[in-house]
Amino acid sequence: MRVRLEHVTHTYSPTDESAAVEVLDDVSLEIPSGEFMVLRGASGSGKSTLLNLIGAVDRPTSGRVFLGDDETSAMSEAQLTNLRRVRLGFVFQFFNLLPTLTVFENVAFSLSLAKRPRDEVRARVNEVLEQVGLANRATHSPNELSGGEMQRVAIGRAIVHRPALILADEPTGNLDSRNGERVLELLRGIHEASRPTIVMATHSERAASFGDSIIDVADGRVLRA
Amino acid sequence: MIPRALVLRPIIREKTRTALTVLGIAVGVAVIVAIQLANQSALRAFRESVDAVAGRANYQIVPEAGALNEQLLLKLQPFWDAGVRFAPVIDVEGVDEATQQPIRMLAVDLLSDLHFRDYRYARIEGAALQSFFQPDAVIVPAPFAREHHLALGSPLTLGILGIKRLMTVRGILEARGPATAFNGAIVVCDVATAQKAFGMLGRLSRVDLLVPDDAIAKQIARVLPPSTRVERPSRRNERVENMLRAFRVNLFALAGVALLVGMFLVYNTVLISILRRRRDVGILKTLGAAPRQIFLAFLYEGLLFGAIGSVLGIALGDVLAEGILSLIGRTVNALYVTSRPESITLTPDVIVLGVSVGVVLSVLSAIAPSIEAARIRPASMIRRGVAPAILPAKSAGKIAGPTLSFALAALAARIPPVKGIAIGGYAAVLFVVAGFSLLAPMIVRGIAAAAARPFRAAFGIVGQLAARSLHASLRRTAIATAALALATGMMVAVALMVGSFRVTVNTWIDQTVRSDLWLRPAKGLTNADVALFPPRILDDLRKVDFVAAADPVHGRDIIYRDAYVTIGTGDTRVAADFGNIPMVTPRRPKPALEKMIRIHGVFVSESFSLKFGKSVGDALTLPTAHGPRTYTVCGIYRDYSNDRGVVFMNRPDYIAAYDDDKINTVVIYLKPGFDREVARRRLEALFGPKYGAFTVTNASIRAEVMRIFDQTFLITYALLGVAIVVAVLGIINTLSALILERTRELALLRVAGMSLRELRTMLLLESALLGIAATVTGVVMGYALSWILINVINKQSFGWTIAFHTPTALIAASLAITFAASVLAGLVPARLASRIHLASALKTE
Asked: Is the model's pTM score more than 0.80?
């Protein structure tokens, strides 16, 4: 899925406790379909905000965001829900697993929301769990897993519905180097196997080296590497 | 600094949660304050009237039954030199015939009474006091004269003790002293005038005394005849208040339910605060905060909620009191004493009551969670990576606590009443509530687990998540569920109790009201007690060809063992042949009634038997106009007309004992086949002009009794409705707090593709599950509580046996309301959830 941003500006509204902060300033960029793109930048550079705008988790203050030919910045809430459910997959720094569901159920979540047949869900989730190396942990609760395992469950959850675009925000930021490496290899493997567009935000040089290309983000502006 | 960081800033920031908690406490306090204010006002008029009529008297000589013989005054003469002053008084209730309204007659020696009472005359006929001693002279208060368009010389027909007399207004009093008593519905006249006009020659209601010291009062008591006592005027108020005590305690207990639910709310709020600020507590402890400081900070939160809630509650209670007063006032008038309620006045003692109840209970509720906060270890940061699951308390799942509570409830239910108050019964209720509250986590867990599969089948992953989330947040949800279950349980219990009582009373009326018509001297049930027929009405009734039998009913209050009881009388022969008295012992009324006639015995009501420990065959010594007389108890019968206890005796025995042959009501049995409506019309035509009689049909008597019954219990439902409202506030509060806490989890669900509608459905399902858990618990608790209400509290407070009956429709309606309310409570958090800003929520760690 091709990603395109046109003159996107994003400002965090002031609250009682803070003044307005402009985190993105007139950003325009294009990520070709099937690309593993890395957004590289220091903490506070605006890369996570950029990722949120691409994933339609947030709306730009001005400018337009396109996924494929659809302008997400103009979509209704219901259209966005459907987009996220069917075409997007998210991986977060802090894994964000649902504590009340087992590993299997966490991975199956978006398929269940889409009301896919139970047999299909079971087969697909088992396949994904095999792929992320957690088939033997299917019935465990997230609390019983290590950090690396949790992130692999999160990746499983992000890919189970075969999304066209996977967004990963500092997926190794909360892991040790060995587990981090394993997660990056997994993402790379997924990309090679089915060629989804992957956009990964990271501050790590090592992580950035797993992408096809890199966009540097600094002070709310982008510079192609 | 610590309270500011942990308590003040968060409660200012979380306005909705703060407002809901404060509102919950305010409503609980308001109900208590309103009940207290209404109770005070309901009897204040009566109390003030008694004081106004008593004037400066510091003692009174009163008969325990009947009237005093005025010869008694001669025995008081020797005390004059010791400084004792005395005033003969006739103080009786009657009817203003023109309006059919009750009126009090105070007859005194107008010349000597100035020692005792202040009279200031606004106008006097002929400008001389002589006119007061004319045989028809009465004096009325100025407001009464204005209201009834009376002037000097106006006629005023009074019905006193069954005698109607045309009197004349000879003086008008300014509204002060006794002229203010009974809301000014009082006439004053000379004692000799009253004695002559209303058949009380030689008799007095009481003698008011001014006694210089208590020792002389004791000497006076020694010279008095039997069944006469010397007592303080306030003793009468105390006796009336004792009579109403069980009724008032019951009202307070019901109001307490709302407050108890409010306590759950405070407990829950403080607990949620602590669970939400666990991380902050950890940080503060790392920085050196002492456990005691943390404990006090959260206790302070409870104190703040309590103080603000109490102040609001007092203001709200002041407003609510007017409504409650009208409900209580009607009940007090119908069942206890005639007292027109006065306007509500917020007194300092009520303010102190409201503040102390609200603050003390809020602080008490905050203690347990505050201790928990103080024990948080600095290192107890929530593990990263998994949205924080809220784990159940360690004690959940253990059944030792509930088992112990239920065992204590069973023991408490066996404790006998203390001064007519079912202390054990109320304690048993608290233990049952505690038991079910401790069981609440298990019940929520069980229901959430049981619902997981059907919810999944019906609502897919949304249903499954709802069931699981509830299970995971057990620690918070269990308290809210317990609060709603408590309110529901009390609702069910009271519905069962009132429903059972209603059926019992209905059956009792069917059984007892078998006559065709009632002939009464005044309209309405209460006024009829102060209006009377003369006995010759019976002679006239015997001449009516369609009347098969007439039972002359009469009654009076006497003082037995320093409490008011009612002596009832009628024609026992007619009751045996035509009536059907519902018996406790022996089973069949007729042989017992025949024995009663034969040996001049009495029947006693069930409440009398329980209150004074009298059984069939026991001797019962009653005060009479001729001193104490002893009767044998021949039967115990059911009587739901009053709770003070009734002694029923045959009319000739009653006349002999009390020198009173008047009649309140004549119960008429028609000859078979005679049309009731025709009889009613003919009786009114015959007896209306001569006796001022009204005819009441059997059906309207039943309807009137049931109307009074329903009116009495209306307040019960109103109070429980308030408890439900507080509990629903608790549910809204809990679920809203959970939303705040689950912001990241809910944002994640949205990012993973859950639509807003699905999110709302999930939250509504969660509140529905809470509703189901509360309803199920409430029904079981309600049945247990109703058993205590019917068999312990009601029996000990009022002495009535009630047959158990389930009012299915009423209970179904109560449950439907509770369940619907709990589901609707989910709308607020669902609305909150739909406003979550996804990017910000996901950024938060």
From this structure: no
